[in-house]
Specification:
alpha+beta; five-stranded antiparallel beta sheet; 3 helices; 8 strands; Hsp70 protein binding; nucleus
């Protein structure tokens, strides 16, 4: 029903079923994993009105399992990529795997999938840092960097009357910086990856 993929490793398509509606995949050497893909195989759909909440479980320093909600897969969204590199510390969240005795080894993490009602999935909040970066976050970073540079450079602007002659100092007119800023913003809006060419 489910598959799990980590870059550079073989695809896992046989989940360990730990309860009627709970499945886990083991992730050895989880410290070296940045992203994980969870997907439906396409052989068995979820029953009508059901979906799967996806959890990441890792052992804390005492060997106790810490579960964090990553997100969901459904018949309408049969795959998802999750960033787990920043999740290997911190607090866990409520999860449906609590009473189960799933063996926990020091460098083995797990991806857990719990089949639940879509209504319940909609009420759960995944950990924010599990979302994979997108072009939007790159664009946002670039925009903030541009704003910061423009504000920083503008804070040193002086009028020609305020300038003191200093032959060893180079000056850049503020309107040149503004023109560059506006041009860069325009090009970034048209194509966020223009700088690669």
């Amino acid at each position: 029903m489910f598959g799990c993929l980590v870059a550079g490793r073989l695809v896992q398509t046989v989940a360990q079923q730990v309860a009627e509606d709970k499945f886990v995949f083991n992730l050895p050497d989880y410290e070296k994993i940045n992203h994980v893909v969870v997907f439906m195989l396409g052989t068995v759909p979820f029953p009508e009105g059901m979906g799967g909440s996806v959890y990441f479980c890792y052992p804390d320093e005492n060997g106790v399992a810490v579960w964090q909600l990553l997100g969901f897969v459904t018949n309408d969204k049969p795959s998802a990529i999750f960033k787990i590199s920043g999740l290997k510390s911190g607090k866990g969240s409520q999860h449906p795997f609590g009473a189960m005795t799933i063996p926990q080894m020091p460098s083995v993490a797990q991806i857990g999938i719990s089949v639940e009602l879509l209504e319940l999935l909609a009420q759960q909040t995944p950990i924010a840092s599990a979302a994979v970066s997108s072009v939007n976050s790159f664009t946002e970073f670039t925009q903030k960097m541009l704003d910061n540079f423009y504000n920083f450079a503008s804070s040193f602007a002086v009028t020609q009357a305020q300038m003191r002659p200093n032959p060893s100092e180079a000056f850049i007119p503020a309107n040149v910086v503004l023109k560059w800023y506006e041009n860069f913003q325009r090009r970034l809006t048209q194509n966020p990856f223009f700088w690669k060419t």
